[in-house]
Amino acid sequence: MKGSFKLGKIAGIGLFVHWTFSLLLAFIIFINYRSGYKTVQIIWSIAFILSVFVTVILHELGHALTAKKYGIKTKDITLLPIGGLARLEKLPEKPMEELIVAFAGPMVNLLLALLTSFFVSIPENEELLATKLSGGIDAHNFLLNFLIVNIALALFNLIPAFPMDGGRMLRAILAFKFQRHTATKIAARIGQLIAMGFVFIGFFLNPFLIFIGLFVFMGAQMETEYTESKHLLKGYTVRDIVMKKYHSLDANEPIKSAVALLLDSQAKIFLITDLDKPVGTLNKDQIIIALSEKGENTPIANAMNKNLVFLNIETPLEDLFELISHNKSNLILVMENKQLVGTLDTENLLEFILIKEVKQKKVYAS
Protein backbone atom coordinates (compact mmCIF):
# COMPACT_ATOMS: atom_id res chain seq x y z
CA MET A 1 0.00 0.00 0.00
CA LYS A 2 1.33 3.45 -0.97
CA GLY A 3 2.49 5.62 1.89
CA SER A 4 3.35 2.66 4.11
CA PHE A 5 6.62 2.05 5.94
CA LYS A 6 7.98 -1.39 6.70
CA LEU A 7 8.45 -2.22 10.38
CA GLY A 8 9.83 -5.70 9.85
CA LYS A 9 8.61 -9.27 9.46
CA ILE A 10 6.64 -11.65 11.66
CA ALA A 11 6.53 -15.32 10.68
CA GLY A 12 7.78 -14.31 7.22
CA ILE A 13 4.94 -11.80 6.76
CA GLY A 14 5.86 -8.17 6.04
CA LEU A 15 4.53 -5.75 8.65
CA PHE A 16 3.83 -2.16 7.49
CA VAL A 17 2.39 0.97 9.08
CA HIS A 18 0.66 3.64 7.02
CA TRP A 19 1.85 7.21 7.52
CA THR A 20 -1.67 8.27 8.59
CA PHE A 21 -1.17 6.24 11.77
CA SER A 22 0.98 9.14 13.01
CA LEU A 23 -2.04 11.44 12.62
CA LEU A 24 -3.98 9.23 15.04
CA LEU A 25 -1.24 9.52 17.65
CA ALA A 26 -1.13 13.29 17.15
CA PHE A 27 -4.91 13.44 17.55
CA ILE A 28 -4.76 11.43 20.79
CA ILE A 29 -2.09 13.77 22.19
CA PHE A 30 -4.16 16.82 21.19
CA ILE A 31 -7.40 15.52 22.75
CA ASN A 32 -5.65 14.57 25.98
CA TYR A 33 -3.87 17.92 26.18
CA ARG A 34 -7.09 19.79 25.51
CA SER A 35 -8.81 17.79 28.27
CA GLY A 36 -6.20 19.01 30.74
CA TYR A 37 -4.45 15.68 31.23
CA LYS A 38 -0.90 15.71 32.49
CA THR A 39 2.09 14.39 30.55
CA VAL A 40 2.09 11.04 32.37
CA GLN A 41 -1.55 10.39 31.50
CA ILE A 42 -0.97 11.38 27.87
CA ILE A 43 1.85 8.82 27.72
CA TRP A 44 -0.52 6.18 29.15
CA SER A 45 -3.07 7.04 26.45
CA ILE A 46 -0.49 6.68 23.67
CA ALA A 47 0.73 3.40 25.17
CA PHE A 48 -2.84 2.12 25.20
CA ILE A 49 -3.40 3.01 21.54
CA LEU A 50 -0.16 1.22 20.66
CA SER A 51 -1.26 -1.83 22.68
CA VAL A 52 -4.57 -1.87 20.77
CA PHE A 53 -2.72 -1.90 17.48
CA VAL A 54 -0.51 -4.74 18.72
CA THR A 55 -3.79 -6.53 19.35
CA VAL A 56 -4.87 -5.73 15.78
CA ILE A 57 -1.60 -7.22 14.48
CA LEU A 58 -2.20 -10.38 16.52
CA HIS A 59 -5.78 -10.52 15.21
CA GLU A 60 -4.56 -10.36 11.59
CA LEU A 61 -1.79 -12.87 12.32
CA GLY A 62 -4.50 -15.20 13.60
CA HIS A 63 -6.05 -15.12 10.13
CA ALA A 64 -2.70 -15.29 8.34
CA LEU A 65 -1.17 -18.20 10.24
CA THR A 66 -4.39 -20.19 10.08
CA ALA A 67 -4.65 -19.58 6.33
CA LYS A 68 -1.03 -20.74 6.00
CA LYS A 69 -2.09 -24.19 7.24
CA TYR A 70 -4.27 -24.45 4.15
CA GLY A 71 -1.49 -23.38 1.79
CA ILE A 72 -2.61 -19.75 1.54
CA LYS A 73 0.15 -17.19 1.93
CA THR A 74 -0.23 -13.67 3.33
CA LYS A 75 1.55 -10.94 1.38
CA ASP A 76 1.68 -8.42 4.23
CA ILE A 77 -0.14 -6.78 7.12
CA THR A 78 -0.61 -3.00 7.15
CA LEU A 79 -1.59 -0.92 10.17
CA LEU A 80 -4.09 1.84 9.45
CA PRO A 81 -5.79 4.35 11.79
CA ILE A 82 -9.01 2.32 11.46
CA GLY A 83 -7.39 -1.09 12.10
CA GLY A 84 -5.31 -3.68 10.31
CA LEU A 85 -5.35 -5.12 6.79
CA ALA A 86 -3.94 -8.57 6.02
CA ARG A 87 -3.51 -9.22 2.29
CA LEU A 88 -3.99 -12.91 1.68
CA GLU A 89 -3.03 -14.23 -1.76
CA LYS A 90 -6.56 -15.62 -1.97
CA LEU A 91 -9.49 -16.41 0.29
CA PRO A 92 -10.18 -20.02 1.30
CA GLU A 93 -13.21 -21.26 -0.63
CA LYS A 94 -13.89 -24.55 1.12
CA PRO A 95 -16.59 -23.83 3.74
CA MET A 96 -14.78 -25.41 6.69
CA GLU A 97 -11.48 -23.72 5.85
CA GLU A 98 -13.11 -20.30 5.46
CA LEU A 99 -15.01 -20.78 8.72
CA ILE A 100 -11.85 -21.61 10.65
CA VAL A 101 -9.73 -18.85 9.05
CA ALA A 102 -12.44 -16.24 9.63
CA PHE A 103 -12.95 -17.23 13.28
CA ALA A 104 -9.20 -17.25 14.00
CA GLY A 105 -9.06 -13.43 14.28
CA PRO A 106 -11.85 -12.95 16.86
CA MET A 107 -10.54 -16.01 18.69
CA VAL A 108 -7.24 -14.18 19.25
CA ASN A 109 -9.13 -11.26 20.82
CA LEU A 110 -11.13 -13.58 23.07
CA LEU A 111 -7.95 -15.35 24.22
CA LEU A 112 -6.26 -12.02 24.96
CA ALA A 113 -9.31 -10.94 26.96
CA LEU A 114 -9.25 -14.23 28.89
CA LEU A 115 -5.53 -13.91 29.69
CA THR A 116 -5.97 -10.29 30.75
CA SER A 117 -8.87 -11.21 33.07
CA PHE A 118 -6.44 -13.13 35.33
CA PHE A 119 -4.63 -9.86 36.10
CA VAL A 120 -7.65 -7.56 36.40
CA SER A 121 -10.07 -6.97 39.23
CA ILE A 122 -13.41 -6.54 37.47
CA PRO A 123 -15.81 -4.11 39.27
CA GLU A 124 -18.91 -5.71 40.76
CA ASN A 125 -21.45 -3.40 39.10
CA GLU A 126 -21.82 -0.85 36.29
CA GLU A 127 -21.47 2.13 38.60
CA LEU A 128 -18.09 0.97 39.93
CA LEU A 129 -17.01 0.11 36.38
CA ALA A 130 -17.90 3.60 35.13
CA THR A 131 -16.02 5.18 38.04
CA LYS A 132 -12.89 3.15 37.36
CA LEU A 133 -12.94 3.98 33.66
CA SER A 134 -13.58 7.70 34.14
CA GLY A 135 -10.76 10.19 33.92
CA GLY A 136 -8.89 8.62 30.99
CA ILE A 137 -6.30 5.85 30.73
CA ASP A 138 -3.87 5.41 33.62
CA ALA A 139 -1.91 2.69 35.42
CA HIS A 140 -4.96 1.67 37.47
CA ASN A 141 -7.35 0.94 34.60
CA PHE A 142 -4.99 0.18 31.69
CA LEU A 143 -5.54 -3.60 31.74
CA LEU A 144 -9.28 -3.25 32.35
CA ASN A 145 -9.55 -1.05 29.26
CA PHE A 146 -7.43 -3.53 27.33
CA LEU A 147 -9.78 -6.38 28.33
CA ILE A 148 -12.88 -4.40 27.32
CA VAL A 149 -11.37 -3.41 23.95
CA ASN A 150 -10.54 -7.02 23.08
CA ILE A 151 -14.05 -8.18 23.92
CA ALA A 152 -15.47 -5.30 21.86
CA LEU A 153 -13.20 -6.12 18.89
CA ALA A 154 -14.21 -9.78 19.01
CA LEU A 155 -17.93 -8.99 19.17
CA PHE A 156 -17.69 -6.34 16.44
CA ASN A 157 -15.86 -8.70 14.10
CA LEU A 158 -18.41 -11.45 14.77
CA ILE A 159 -21.26 -9.31 13.40
CA PRO A 160 -22.63 -11.45 10.53
CA ALA A 161 -21.98 -8.87 7.81
CA PHE A 162 -19.25 -8.35 5.21
CA PRO A 163 -16.48 -7.32 5.36
CA MET A 164 -16.30 -8.40 9.02
CA ASP A 165 -15.19 -11.91 9.96
CA GLY A 166 -18.75 -12.73 11.01
CA GLY A 167 -19.94 -12.18 7.43
CA ARG A 168 -17.38 -14.67 6.13
CA MET A 169 -18.32 -17.14 8.86
CA LEU A 170 -22.00 -16.82 7.92
CA ARG A 171 -21.14 -17.34 4.24
CA ALA A 172 -19.07 -20.43 5.14
CA ILE A 173 -21.96 -21.93 7.15
CA LEU A 174 -24.41 -21.26 4.30
CA ALA A 175 -21.94 -22.74 1.79
CA PHE A 176 -22.36 -26.16 3.40
CA LYS A 177 -25.83 -26.17 1.81
CA PHE A 178 -25.66 -23.67 -1.08
CA GLN A 179 -23.18 -22.90 -3.84
CA ARG A 180 -20.63 -20.28 -2.79
CA HIS A 181 -22.05 -17.44 -4.90
CA THR A 182 -25.56 -18.12 -3.60
CA ALA A 183 -24.30 -18.31 -0.02
CA THR A 184 -22.53 -14.98 -0.57
CA LYS A 185 -25.73 -13.33 -1.83
CA ILE A 186 -27.71 -14.52 1.20
CA ALA A 187 -24.98 -13.48 3.66
CA ALA A 188 -24.63 -10.10 1.92
CA ARG A 189 -28.37 -9.38 2.10
CA ILE A 190 -28.41 -10.23 5.82
CA GLY A 191 -25.39 -7.98 6.31
CA GLN A 192 -27.03 -5.13 4.42
CA LEU A 193 -30.14 -5.38 6.61
CA ILE A 194 -27.88 -5.08 9.64
CA ALA A 195 -26.12 -2.15 7.98
CA MET A 196 -29.43 -0.31 7.49
CA GLY A 197 -30.13 -0.93 11.18
CA PHE A 198 -26.80 0.72 12.05
CA VAL A 199 -27.65 3.73 9.89
CA PHE A 200 -31.13 4.10 11.41
CA ILE A 201 -29.87 3.83 15.01
CA GLY A 202 -27.01 6.19 14.17
CA PHE A 203 -29.40 9.05 13.51
CA PHE A 204 -30.63 8.83 17.10
CA LEU A 205 -27.61 7.64 19.11
CA ASN A 206 -24.24 8.12 17.45
CA PRO A 207 -23.44 9.44 13.93
CA PHE A 208 -20.43 7.11 13.82
CA LEU A 209 -22.88 4.19 13.47
CA ILE A 210 -24.03 5.74 10.18
CA PHE A 211 -20.46 5.54 8.88
CA ILE A 212 -20.18 1.90 10.01
CA GLY A 213 -23.51 1.07 8.37
CA LEU A 214 -22.49 2.56 5.03
CA PHE A 215 -19.11 0.80 5.24
CA VAL A 216 -20.81 -2.56 5.87
CA PHE A 217 -23.42 -2.02 3.14
CA MET A 218 -20.80 -1.25 0.48
CA GLY A 219 -18.56 -4.08 1.69
CA ALA A 220 -21.41 -6.55 1.25
CA GLN A 221 -22.10 -5.29 -2.27
CA MET A 222 -18.44 -5.55 -3.29
CA GLU A 223 -18.18 -9.10 -1.92
CA THR A 224 -21.32 -10.12 -3.84
CA GLU A 225 -20.03 -8.69 -7.13
CA TYR A 226 -16.61 -10.28 -6.63
CA THR A 227 -18.00 -13.75 -5.90
CA GLU A 228 -20.59 -13.54 -8.68
CA SER A 229 -17.87 -12.64 -11.20
CA LYS A 230 -15.75 -15.60 -10.12
CA HIS A 231 -18.78 -17.87 -10.49
CA LEU A 232 -19.39 -16.65 -14.05
CA LEU A 233 -15.80 -17.59 -14.94
CA LYS A 234 -16.09 -21.19 -13.76
CA GLY A 235 -15.26 -23.67 -16.52
CA TYR A 236 -13.31 -21.17 -18.61
CA THR A 237 -9.56 -20.87 -19.04
CA VAL A 238 -7.18 -18.19 -20.30
CA ARG A 239 -7.45 -19.84 -23.73
CA ASP A 240 -11.00 -18.47 -23.99
CA ILE A 241 -9.98 -14.81 -23.67
CA VAL A 242 -6.33 -14.62 -24.74
CA MET A 243 -5.62 -11.70 -27.08
CA LYS A 244 -3.59 -13.09 -29.96
CA LYS A 245 -3.42 -9.72 -31.68
CA TYR A 246 -1.42 -7.22 -29.67
CA HIS A 247 0.85 -4.25 -30.28
CA SER A 248 4.56 -4.41 -29.55
CA LEU A 249 7.42 -1.94 -29.63
CA ASP A 250 11.18 -2.34 -29.61
CA ALA A 251 12.90 -1.32 -26.37
CA ASN A 252 15.43 0.77 -28.30
CA GLU A 253 12.83 2.90 -30.08
CA PRO A 254 12.23 6.45 -28.80
CA ILE A 255 9.19 7.17 -26.64
CA LYS A 256 7.70 9.20 -29.50
CA SER A 257 7.09 5.89 -31.32
CA ALA A 258 4.95 4.77 -28.39
CA VAL A 259 3.10 8.10 -28.49
CA ALA A 260 2.36 7.61 -32.19
CA LEU A 261 1.05 4.08 -31.60
CA LEU A 262 -1.02 5.26 -28.64
CA LEU A 263 -2.73 7.88 -30.81
CA ASP A 264 -3.19 5.52 -33.76
CA SER A 265 -4.81 2.60 -31.92
CA GLN A 266 -7.27 1.69 -29.16
CA ALA A 267 -4.53 -0.09 -27.20
CA LYS A 268 -3.34 1.49 -23.94
CA ILE A 269 -0.70 -1.09 -22.94
CA PHE A 270 2.08 -2.41 -25.17
CA LEU A 271 4.49 -5.31 -25.11
CA ILE A 272 8.14 -4.24 -25.31
CA THR A 273 10.65 -6.54 -27.00
CA ASP A 274 14.38 -6.67 -27.63
CA LEU A 275 15.54 -8.93 -30.44
CA ASP A 276 11.96 -10.28 -30.56
CA LYS A 277 12.10 -11.36 -26.92
CA PRO A 278 9.71 -9.85 -24.31
CA VAL A 279 11.58 -7.54 -21.94
CA GLY A 280 8.83 -5.33 -20.50
CA THR A 281 5.47 -3.64 -20.83
CA LEU A 282 4.54 0.02 -21.32
CA ASN A 283 1.22 1.64 -20.46
CA LYS A 284 -0.29 5.06 -21.24
CA ASP A 285 0.67 6.60 -17.88
CA GLN A 286 4.30 5.52 -18.25
CA ILE A 287 4.38 7.02 -21.76
CA ILE A 288 3.04 10.38 -20.53
CA ILE A 289 5.47 10.50 -17.59
CA ALA A 290 8.46 9.63 -19.79
CA LEU A 291 7.39 12.21 -22.38
CA SER A 292 7.07 15.00 -19.81
CA GLU A 293 10.15 14.17 -17.73
CA LYS A 294 12.64 12.74 -20.23
CA GLY A 295 11.51 13.95 -23.64
CA GLU A 296 10.26 12.25 -26.78
CA ASN A 297 13.65 10.88 -27.79
CA THR A 298 14.33 8.90 -24.62
CA PRO A 299 14.48 5.13 -25.30
CA ILE A 300 11.39 3.12 -24.38
CA ALA A 301 13.68 0.90 -22.28
CA ASN A 302 14.03 3.78 -19.80
CA ALA A 303 10.27 4.03 -19.26
CA MET A 304 8.98 0.46 -19.45
CA ASN A 305 8.01 -1.86 -16.62
CA LYS A 306 10.57 -4.68 -16.59
CA ASN A 307 8.59 -6.96 -14.27
CA LEU A 308 6.97 -9.45 -16.62
CA VAL A 309 4.10 -11.67 -15.50
CA PHE A 310 3.62 -14.98 -17.31
CA LEU A 311 0.52 -17.15 -17.34
CA ASN A 312 -0.18 -20.63 -18.72
CA ILE A 313 -2.95 -20.71 -21.31
CA GLU A 314 -4.78 -23.47 -19.40
CA THR A 315 -5.04 -21.47 -16.16
CA PRO A 316 -8.68 -21.34 -14.93
CA LEU A 317 -10.11 -17.82 -15.24
CA GLU A 318 -11.64 -17.95 -11.75
CA ASP A 319 -8.10 -18.10 -10.33
CA LEU A 320 -7.04 -14.85 -12.01
CA PHE A 321 -8.72 -12.21 -9.84
CA GLU A 322 -5.86 -11.75 -7.39
CA LEU A 323 -3.23 -11.79 -10.14
CA ILE A 324 -5.15 -9.30 -12.28
CA SER A 325 -5.81 -6.96 -9.34
CA HIS A 326 -2.06 -6.68 -8.65
CA ASN A 327 -1.27 -6.05 -12.34
CA LYS A 328 -4.06 -3.67 -13.35
CA SER A 329 -1.81 -1.51 -15.48
CA ASN A 330 0.34 -4.29 -17.01
CA LEU A 331 0.02 -6.80 -19.80
CA ILE A 332 0.14 -10.42 -18.70
CA LEU A 333 1.96 -12.69 -21.14
CA VAL A 334 0.21 -15.94 -22.05
CA MET A 335 2.40 -18.97 -22.71
CA GLU A 336 1.74 -22.35 -24.33
CA ASN A 337 4.47 -24.97 -24.61
CA LYS A 338 6.98 -22.31 -23.52
CA GLN A 339 5.98 -20.09 -26.43
CA LEU A 340 4.34 -16.66 -26.25
CA VAL A 341 0.89 -17.00 -27.83
CA GLY A 342 -0.83 -13.82 -26.69
CA THR A 343 -1.52 -11.34 -23.92
CA LEU A 344 -4.19 -10.59 -21.33
CA ASP A 345 -5.13 -7.44 -19.43
CA THR A 346 -7.71 -6.29 -16.90
CA GLU A 347 -9.99 -4.70 -19.49
CA ASN A 348 -10.20 -7.91 -21.50
CA LEU A 349 -11.21 -9.96 -18.44
CA LEU A 350 -13.83 -7.39 -17.38
CA GLU A 351 -15.32 -7.34 -20.90
CA PHE A 352 -15.58 -11.15 -20.84
CA ILE A 353 -17.39 -10.99 -17.47
CA LEU A 354 -19.76 -8.30 -18.83
CA ILE A 355 -20.66 -10.44 -21.85
CA LYS A 356 -21.33 -13.46 -19.62
CA GLU A 357 -23.56 -11.35 -17.35
CA VAL A 358 -25.61 -10.13 -20.32
CA LYS A 359 -25.99 -13.67 -21.70
CA GLN A 360 -27.01 -14.97 -18.28
CA LYS A 361 -29.68 -12.26 -17.91
CA LYS A 362 -31.09 -13.18 -21.32
CA VAL A 363 -31.30 -16.84 -20.31
CA TYR A 364 -33.20 -15.90 -17.11
CA ALA A 365 -35.48 -13.54 -19.05
CA SER A 366 -36.44 -16.26 -21.54
Polypeptide structure, described:
The protein has 366 residues and is an alpha/beta fold. The protein folds into 2 domains: 4-158, no CATH class; 238-361, CBS-domain, CATH 3.10.580. 54% of the residues lie in helices and 16% in strands. It has 12 helices and 10 strands. It has helices at residues 21-34, 39-68, 95-117, 126-133, 142-157, 165-175, 180-202, 207-232, 255-263, 284-294, 321-325, 346-365, and strands at 4-10, 13-18, 74-80, 83-88, 248-250, 269-274, 277-283, 309-312, 332-336, 339-344. The strands form 3 sheets. A 4-stranded mixed β-sheet has the order 1-2-3-4, with helices on one face. Strands 5-6-7 form a 3-stranded mixed β-sheet. Strand 3 (74-80) and strand 4 (83-88) form a beta hairpin. Helix 2 packs antiparallel against helix 3 (95-117) and helix 7 (180-202) runs antiparallel to helix 8 (207-232). The longest helix is centred in the first third of the chain and has 30 residues, at 39-68. The chain is globular, with a radius of gyration of 25 Å. The two termini are 45 Å apart.
